[in-house]
């Protein structure tokens, strides 16, 4: 069946809110904050369905500072870098998520200044590549945009999210 566009929109908003939270946290704590997108295999085999913020403590050990914000089973952040272009620039790893075993993640790091790293591009291209796109879960790996999607574009210098929808 069709995924209600409200589901896609609300979860695009959820991802954008996490970006804003990461930016505020980085600024207030004067430390870099990692926004991690988790692949939660118990929810969805494909796509990213959890978002969590992490910081490095004084000892350099990363620790979660928020609980995992879960997207509903109907939608995910696309794992295809053709439409979630930020994935080409993310760091990756795996970490324990609540009671689950280790889950793989992709992450961007937001500095206290608002600069997003790693951004390996400069100039006019920088904006267009820092995007994550929320799509219906069954299209998690598709390289084409569905009719129903939301793209979150992150400004690489200010970490400000903008939401685009068709």
Can you describe this structure?
The protein is α+β, with helices and mostly antiparallel strands and 166 residues long. 18% of the residues lie in helices and 32% in strands. It has helices spanning 5-29, 125-129; strands spanning 33-38, 50-56, 62-64, 69-70, 75-77, 91-96, 102-110, 116-117, 131-136, 150-154, 161-164. The protein is globular.
What's the quick description here?
The protein is an alpha+beta fold and 166 residues long. It has helices at residues 5-29, 125-129, and strands at 33-38, 50-56, 62-64, 69-70, 75-77, 91-96, 102-110, 116-117, 131-136, 150-154, 161-164. The protein starts with a helix and ends with a strand.
Largest sheet: 7 strands, antiparallel
By DSSP (H or I, 4+ residues per run), the number of helices equals 2
- The separation of the N and C termini measures 20 Å
How would the global form be characterised?
globular
How are the secondary structure elements laid out?
Blueprint lengths: L4 H25 L3 E6 L11 E7 L5 E3 L4 E2 L4 E3 L13 E6 L5 E9 L5 E2 L7 H5 L1 E6 L13 E5 L6 E4 L2
Antiparallel strand pairs: 1-2, 1-7, 2-3, 2-4, 5-9, 6-7, 7-8, 9-10, 10-11
């Amino acid at each position: 069946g069709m995924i209600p566009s409200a589901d896609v929109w609300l979860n695009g908003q959820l991802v954008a809110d996490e970006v804003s939270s990461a930016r505020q946290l980085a600024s207030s704590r004067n430390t870099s904050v990692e926004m991690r997108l988790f692949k939660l295999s118990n929810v969805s085999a494909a796509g990213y369905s959890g978002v969590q913020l992490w910081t490095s403590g004084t000892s350099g050990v990363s620790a979660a500072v928020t609980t995992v914000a879960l997207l509903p089973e109907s939608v995910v952040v696309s794992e295809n870098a053709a439409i979630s272009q930020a994935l080409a620039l993310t760091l990756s790893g795996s970490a324990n998520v609540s009671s689950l075993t280790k889950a793989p993640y992709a992450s961007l790091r937001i500095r206290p200044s608002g600069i997003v790293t790693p951004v390996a591009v400069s100039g006019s291209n920088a904006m267009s590549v820092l995007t994550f796109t929320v799509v219906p879960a069954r299209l998690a790996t598709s390289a084409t945009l569905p009719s129903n999607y939301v793209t979150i574009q992150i400004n690489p210098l200010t970490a400000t999210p903008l939401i685009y929808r068709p």
